[in-house]
Amino acid sequence: MSVLGQAARTYLAAYTGYVTYLPGGVSPDQTGQGNTSQPYAVYQSISRQRQRTTSGAVVATTERVQVTVVGETRSSSQATANWIAAAITATPSRQTVGSLFIHSWRVEEESSSNEVYQDGSDESARIISIEIVGTYTE
User: For residue 115, what are the β-bridge partners?
Assistant: First the structure.
């Protein structure tokens, strides 16, 4: 489970515009079957690196999290990805979210694609993925 992803989810849920931009919510790893509210987002940890003292104690952790936004249209997916990026960059450092102290976080790398649903229809989902990189202390 992604610690930074969970913190981002908690942070975004309290941020102005959450219900408008993410009616399907934010879920870890994958959304539940039958989620029809779009756009929605899922997050997963890509990498985690712990900074340690010479005695081995963890002083901070840097994690890279991929947030994937799925929507019915490219514009709705892009608007949601832009909203997430704006929310994260609005407070880039030194804050407490839940039980974490976030030293810094930023948005890097964006990619987009279409994916055809496997339900027999010819509809496709518009997908935008962004990566959030952050350093925190638990």
Answer: 125
In one-letter notation, the amino acid at residue 82 is: N
* 80 CB neighbour count, 10 Å cutoff: 25
User: Which residues contact residue 16 at a Cβ distance below 8 angstroms, ignoring those fewer than 6 apart?
Assistant: none
pLDDT of 74-125, one tens digit each? 899 999 999 999 999 999 889 999 889 999 999 998 998 877 666 555 567 8
Angular region, 97: left φ>0, alpha ψ -120 to 50, beta rest: beta
Overall CATH class of domain 3-137: alpha beta
Residue-range domain boundaries for the chain: 3-137
Q: Which residue has the tokens 């490219």?
A: 74
Q: Which helix (H) or strand (E) holds 48?
A: strand 40-52
